[in-house]
Amino acid sequence: MDRERLRQLLENVRSGALDPDAAAEALSDVPFVETEHARVDTHRALRHGLPEVIYAPGKTPEQIVEVMRVLLRVEQDVLVTRLEADTAEFVVSETGAEYDPTSRLLWAGRQHVPLEGKGTIAVVCAGTSDLPVAAEAAGVATRFGNKVETLHDVGVAGIHRLLDSSRLLRSARVLIVVAGMEGALPSVVGGMVDKPVIAVPTSVGYGASFGGVSALLGMLTSCASNVTVVNIDNGFGAAYVATLINRL
Amino acid sequence: MDRERLRQLLENVRSGALDPDAAAEALSDVPFVETEHARVDTHRALRHGLPEVIYAPGKTPEQIVEVMRVLLRVEQDVLVTRLEADTAEFVVSETGAEYDPTSRLLWAGRQHVPLEGKGTIAVVCAGTSDLPVAAEAAGVATRFGNKVETLHDVGVAGIHRLLDSSRLLRSARVLIVVAGMEGALPSVVGGMVDKPVIAVPTSVGYGASFGGVSALLGMLTSCASNVTVVNIDNGFGAAYVATLINRL
Amino acid sequence: MDRERLRQLLENVRSGALDPDAAAEALSDVPFVETEHARVDTHRALRHGLPEVIYAPGKTPEQIVEVMRVLLRVEQDVLVTRLEADTAEFVVSETGAEYDPTSRLLWAGRQHVPLEGKGTIAVVCAGTSDLPVAAEAAGVATRFGNKVETLHDVGVAGIHRLLDSSRLLRSARVLIVVAGMEGALPSVVGGMVDKPVIAVPTSVGYGASFGGVSALLGMLTSCASNVTVVNIDNGFGAAYVATLINRL
Amino acid sequence: MDRERLRQLLENVRSGALDPDAAAEALSDVPFVETEHARVDTHRALRHGLPEVIYAPGKTPEQIVEVMRVLLRVEQDVLVTRLEADTAEFVVSETGAEYDPTSRLLWAGRQHVPLEGKGTIAVVCAGTSDLPVAAEAAGVATRFGNKVETLHDVGVAGIHRLLDSSRLLRSARVLIVVAGMEGALPSVVGGMVDKPVIAVPTSVGYGASFGGVSALLGMLTSCASNVTVVNIDNGFGAAYVATLINRL
Amino acid sequence: MDRERLRQLLENVRSGALDPDAAAEALSDVPFVETEHARVDTHRALRHGLPEVIYAPGKTPEQIVEVMRVLLRVEQDVLVTRLEADTAEFVVSETGAEYDPTSRLLWAGRQHVPLEGKGTIAVVCAGTSDLPVAAEAAGVATRFGNKVETLHDVGVAGIHRLLDSSRLLRSARVLIVVAGMEGALPSVVGGMVDKPVIAVPTSVGYGASFGGVSALLGMLTSCASNVTVVNIDNGFGAAYVATLINRL
Amino acid sequence: MDRERLRQLLENVRSGALDPDAAAEALSDVPFVETEHARVDTHRALRHGLPEVIYAPGKTPEQIVEVMRVLLRVEQDVLVTRLEADTAEFVVSETGAEYDPTSRLLWAGRQHVPLEGKGTIAVVCAGTSDLPVAAEAAGVATRFGNKVETLHDVGVAGIHRLLDSSRLLRSARVLIVVAGMEGALPSVVGGMVDKPVIAVPTSVGYGASFGGVSALLGMLTSCASNVTVVNIDNGFGAAYVATLINRL
Amino acid sequence: MDRERLRQLLENVRSGALDPDAAAEALSDVPFVETEHARVDTHRALRHGLPEVIYAPGKTPEQIVEVMRVLLRVEQDVLVTRLEADTAEFVVSETGAEYDPTSRLLWAGRQHVPLEGKGTIAVVCAGTSDLPVAAEAAGVATRFGNKVETLHDVGVAGIHRLLDSSRLLRSARVLIVVAGMEGALPSVVGGMVDKPVIAVPTSVGYGASFGGVSALLGMLTSCASNVTVVNIDNGFGAAYVATLINRL
Amino acid sequence: MDRERLRQLLENVRSGALDPDAAAEALSDVPFVETEHARVDTHRALRHGLPEVIYAPGKTPEQIVEVMRVLLRVEQDVLVTRLEADTAEFVVSETGAEYDPTSRLLWAGRQHVPLEGKGTIAVVCAGTSDLPVAAEAAGVATRFGNKVETLHDVGVAGIHRLLDSSRLLRSARVLIVVAGMEGALPSVVGGMVDKPVIAVPTSVGYGASFGGVSALLGMLTSCASNVTVVNIDNGFGAAYVATLINRL
Lengths: 248, 248, 248, 248, 248, 248, 248, 248
Fold this sequence. Notes:
The structure is a homooctamer. By secondary structure, the first copy, chain A, is α/β, with parallel strands linked by helices. Chain A has two domains: 3-108, no CATH class; 120-247, Rossmann fold (3-Layer(aba) Sandwich).
């Protein structure tokens, strides 16, 4: 139950449209619902103003469905991240949720999330191999109520492509920059704008990429001062923080 | 020359208070001034709305003074970071700048920087040994025109101290959380607020702290989704990003 | 043969219930029984007061059954750890042992192990993905004769859930705290109690988790002084030490 | 103020020996005393039953003296760790505390701490270079009210020396084993006793010792199940946990 | 063609038993035979006095058979290492070689290799999981003409088992000690004998074992001075060097 | 003695200007001259066409002078690298060589080295702190007979400065790009030119720079295919290879 | 469209052989063609004088075919690298391209690429396991218009094989040296020639090879000054740079 | 007391030259003498046939002298390693021992140690910077009763120097090869001989040498099978093992 729905429910009580008893029942769930495998935090949307997010790895399809049902029962939107296609099939068939294989995101809830972000979040990525992480960031930011602009395939070794898009970059309120290998893109983008840049290293690459470590280190030591960093492949985290910033 | 001064100058031209020739001369510096050792970017304040910052390590006191003079000549505020006390003495005597030994910051320019941040930046730190980094973050944020609240000595092993300050934490618009050792503080603070948290690992600790690596890894893998990370001991970078966010 | 059984046997000899010759035969096994692949230490329970434990990885099902039979012949309880479900099937069918798929523990021996621990061991874990390791710790501690309380899904980013359980935490004599990612939970729990806390890092996480290294480092550098650490995913080791402590 | 003193004070109030007003004043310090540089936790001894411990590195002699005075004013014992000899000189002259250069411990408070540990803590170390860490562990354990036995210079490459001391090892209730280089001593000692062993890696060694990392890894992967590990050189932490265990 | 065969051949020429032309043909192979995929060094046995060894990983079964045929044609013994069981099947069927699945060694050539080592090589290993590496070492040493004694399952946490075998250890001329996890066994064995000890770390273990790195570091930093180290899992290399030493 | 001098000497013999005996004496030094501490390779210039280079660290001033004298006696130019200022003073006073404190290079030999490189070597660096390494590269390349263009203070976070210099970059035949921190500059430069780029990571930076490792990894994983890498701070090596390329 | 074709096209316009309109159409593609998944840079060959190269990992067969078609439509040669055999089958069937399974290279375009390199590129490798990387380097260099000589199976432990080939090595204009394990080959080769050596570490090896890290470090710290390094297994990158050098 | 002296003493008793009481007194020292800071093992020479060795780092000059006196009293030779020049001065003045500053070895005892090694130990090193470690190895081997041949400055990048010395290398019974940087020398030497090669990595180098780690890894992954490795800079350990081998 998010803030807007809570406000609506209380409004309905005041207006007489809703019986206090029914309202009480709707509110009766304690913040935690204990399922067999987890405490589900049904008031999270209320506290943080965002849908509940389920991180799929390590959970069985049955556990995911179990938690989703608890949340959907209290009319809370649900976003599942890092859901592999084969697992998604079962969850979709059980819950009717939407699934996007590129970003590996699954969504259940309102069709259209109202825009709550004040400006645009730009999601920039270097190569086609970084697309899944960028798609996760863009998909999450959209589901969290932001206008999102994406810019793909603009690596630092072809700097002219990036410069061609400087208007788009400068018009964003927050930027998420996704890059693997040497992870230099956030530094260059960071120097082109005066807005916060959230850098996401990806595990793309081989050899001395060390599963994203090189990109991570490159971003942490960026010579652009407006860059902060999240974990390797953490498109979700970047979108989460960008959303909080975009609501300020 | 920052935006406000530029606007004022042009206003003066329009009002006749300033002769166009004099204005031209004032504007005549190309964006770069080449000194013996560096290209000084005199329009940076104009482009980014922030004073020029000089990172002291690896520069001689003479080089620092040389760059400062170029900037002060075009009436730009200057902030020097990581300036050791013994080097500072010479710079202060040459330029009359203010120096704070805890944060190792040196400042030359306007006495009072107008508040441009819309809310408060909270600077939180775990232990007394993290104080220098926290002081750098707080000092920079203040010089960049923000209202700053500080909260010290609230480690996660004494969680009650932290909870006692939850009102202060929740009232901030952006939070900078500084911690060494296991670097767990940003996760706990992140769970208490719904604002962006910028985590700064410090090189404090011994043994398996590995000069801040443990804290860095802990922050990158934080289970709180509203946490982004900057480089070890990078109080300046945290304050820079927090400033950009606080101006949104 | 554990101490209790040895005492009973000697008691029976004294009382005449057991013929000295039969007793001698029962005691005749030398401490080591050489099987084809291993020296089995049949007096371990006697020396350490705990059942023999077989670490399954790298052993064939046949080897496991071979060692189990040697031990069961001398009436010693057997606990097998890290046994994958497919291997377990064969072992169960050959020996009639009990198997739990979550903790991957297999048990053969007495149905009820007498309580020998003086207090309660609390097993606390952060997220649902840490459950297998926590289940191993809880299962082993139970089989070793301890009263065990478990507390799941209490991550540091939702500190209120943890505080709600402070009574449970404070009532334990020893605590095992299991966490992946940044591994901050032992620090927070450690600050809430004045009992020994055994921290178990898990390999849960991605990117900068580095297979549990981040959690491990976080625990080693914990700012709570009552925390000691065991190897990544080593729920067994934590339960073993907790058992020794709980018998003091 | 520790528990015993608190009990005594309340007893005195009940018996009329102490005026309620005086008692109130004695208790009036809130748990935190804010000094210029730190919140001092004056009730820590009360909560945990141990003296306050000050970790010296990163603190100036003046800061250490300032905190000590706050604590001594409320009659709390103070232990300072990792205090270098040159800093110690000032602190001793200001406070009259005792200082031991080998363990780098400084103590202010009661001359004789009553024995509260139920058994003996054995402190074992491999080589003469590990002595400072072992001395820290032994010194802290003694100041925390334990009977301590020490055993030095018993490396695994001269296993007979260790075996000669097996009686001493087996008579301990808890063991602290300190070793650098390959860190194998805790494994061997762990196999000789059925009590908890707390392993302390030291930064002694060169080359592939990597400042204690090799010893740390060796201890974490010990084949003895009764071994837990603390941070490199953390003799204090080992003694702290051993004390908690010895009071059970 | 090894030295002995070369000597025999020349002897036969002298005695008239072999026609010089036939001898010339037998010797006509240049030291390198170029096959499609490799230069085969047919005189290696001559130069080093050992059979040619083929390291299987990265080679197809066909490549292995191709090289073996070149060598067998010049009557040179062939030893293949690290040959997986499924690949071995094809090689055995093509060449009639002998294969041992535990050590993953394949042998083609003389049934009995004459003893050329002057003493015994002891191969000692800690746990059952180290057996494959120990078996490789023992198998190679045997094929290289050494008398080999093996001692299994003597971990440092059960030091008495090791001491029971001290006579066997002391009677060896060279020792190969195989261990995973903390890799402490070579230190203890090294302290018990005054002969060279070749330590082989194994990749056995989990978590902080890091695929054998912990054992490797432990062996490199051994406090026993008679220990040298080979690569992780390199049972072959240990046997090779032990053979050279045993021939001195 | 380099090739040119050898040719000249032989020419002089042919023309009668030089007596064959004198020529023989001049050529009589065997390729190695054994000094007390090193074999000096007096024909290196002949073989490789470059002056002898002495790497100063780990050598005493006396050893450096000793080797220089051997080389100067056979009229070979000498370049000393990484010579600290205090050591240089002694060497200069003994040999009359030239010393440059920024690049830490010392030179003894011909005043003007003839240009042998066919084009220009560009030496580009990111920040003022990278200057010493860039100066070493530029100084060595000059002494090795190349035309050198330098471009300083063009970091990737201010991409416009770099683009302003694209003509200079494109006119070079080989480029040496020096950068610390995230080491992104070679990628961007590499994308702007179609010539070989030799990347030199520097140890400049703090925290997650890890003494140049981040820059090194960034360069190794560069998305620009025309980038190769040398060791951290190895300005000399970069100039050496650039020289070889520039002579092709 | 490469430079030669562009020149030809313009020549045809001048000679009247090509209608300006047709020429315009041929040139009408903007430098980027946007396909569904990537911006294809159709003028790359024009800018850099080399065919477009597609790095296969992370791309579906369909994406590869899609990009290839765009490029082939503008008559540009296409080289695909790191294409696994099973994926290649589909691409070959769709496009009729040539595929080599050892080097994992796929080629579509002109049958014979004109020689543009001025000398020979030598590709040297240590063991048979390094062959795939060496084959990639040799294949790419050939397709890029170079004469290539290959030398296989010349490890440093059999130094005479290498010396036998010194003539071949010295006749090359650029050398690519491929090696795994200790990566020493480039140092030895580097000492034998006075031409640039590009070292390619391979991920071949086990244990302390750490997936090529040991070879990489060995090459970066090579005592031969004419060695530069590319990423682990990056045969393509080595060939790319060698091509640029060979065209100088 | 070493074996020879023990035999002599018993011989004297048999012949009547020594009174049994005097002999008893001479033998009366228990194997350990407890000094204030260490248990000194006075029978070590007897057990291992080598003088006692004192590792100086971490010991005060006074402690070293104290241990030396205990040993000298029982007529045992003493070798001190890694003794810095300033500490040595005191020890020499107190004990009259000999000190060599290059190898940092100090020796007290018999002037001439009888040759007990059966052949020659060759000590080979790559560069002048590796000399201290090579000198330690050579000095220790000499003091341990071996004939030692040294070969300096034979790096792999100048392979001809090494080949010139192949006779010397082949005549050794055991070889110690010392190298920093890429550590390739043992591989090349290992391929030239059929004797055991003990490789000693040195901490010489900068950047990616990582204090000897690169050399260490290169040696562990050597493609020469007769190479074993000791710790970084451990010239002593190499000499110790070489001595044991040379006595076989």
